[in-house]
Amino acid sequence: MLTRHFKIDSSGKRIIKVFHCKIHVFCHTTNTRMQPVIDFLKLSIEDQFFSKSERKSLREIIDEVKPSEQQLAFLRSQIFELAEQKATPENYKFIVEWIRDATSALMNTTPKAPNSDAYFSPGDACKNIIIQQIRQAISLLQICVFTISDDTITSAILDSHKRGVQVKIITDNDKLLDEGSDIEQLAGEGIPVRIDRTANHMHHKFMIADSKALITGSYNWTRSAARFNHENILLTREGGVIKSFAKEFDQLWNLLAIFE
Is the dihedral of CA 139, 145, 151, 152 positive or negative? Predict the structure, then answer.
């Protein structure tokens, strides 16, 4: 059995099939982005051989065309349609294995989880990513932090509030009276604030923007955190993580006292 490999060229319109030194080029005139994948699937089922290297090549092709979730669903339907067309009593075992391997290749190339990144202080990296996410918010900011005393962050929060973004803040009562605390200023501008009045501390430091982005980490929203402290911030758009933090925010919001 000859070793075969498949590659996609930079135009996204060719599949190159290599038999040792012989190269056969199949040109595709269609503008459908998924056509290279479909052509590959057709070739693999036609000759009833789907090697490990071919499965790897299929994953590479899918990575190259970067299908959306809907396009992946379309490709899955194409797999079963091709299998139905080609299935016979004689090749039934191969068809079952082919369906398994082809769908597995699609699962392994499902779009990657939303990007995450980390930021560190001393320096302005943590502060800047907080301000960036505040400014990019469209409808909702859920802020749950131990304290806020960095005037540049406070200014960004107020600007978002004034342009119609719903802002909700949860914080700890022990830091309200600290010199430079901006909580009273934020509440005075009409932003709803809930505080922990218990003997314990509400020590979270996280923010959710539009239910799509989460910032969390050790970084306190203070000037000293940016100038002196070794702190960190994680930014993620991972839906499951955001959902968990949103649940915690809602629980605290319903539990803690209204700041007046």
Answer: negative
Whole-angstrom Cα distance, residue 210 to residue 133? Answer: 10
What pTM was estimated for this model as a whole? 0.59
- By C-alpha distance, which of 194, 193, 196 is closest to 185? 193
Quote the crossing angle between the two packed helices 92-108 and 35-46, to the nearest 10°.
150
Burial of 15 (0-12, 13-18, 19+ CB in 10 A): buried
The rounded distance, in Å, linking the Cα atoms of 211 and 213 is 6
Distance of CA 189 to the CA centre of its chain: 33
Residues 199-251: tens digit of each pLDDT: 899 999 999 999 999 999 999 999 999 999 999 999 999 999 999 999 999 99
CA torsion, points 44, 48, 54, 57, in degrees to nearest 10? 10
Which residue type, as a one-letter code, is found at position 188?
G
Rounded Cα distance, 47 and 44, in Å: 6
Active site residues: 203, 205, 210
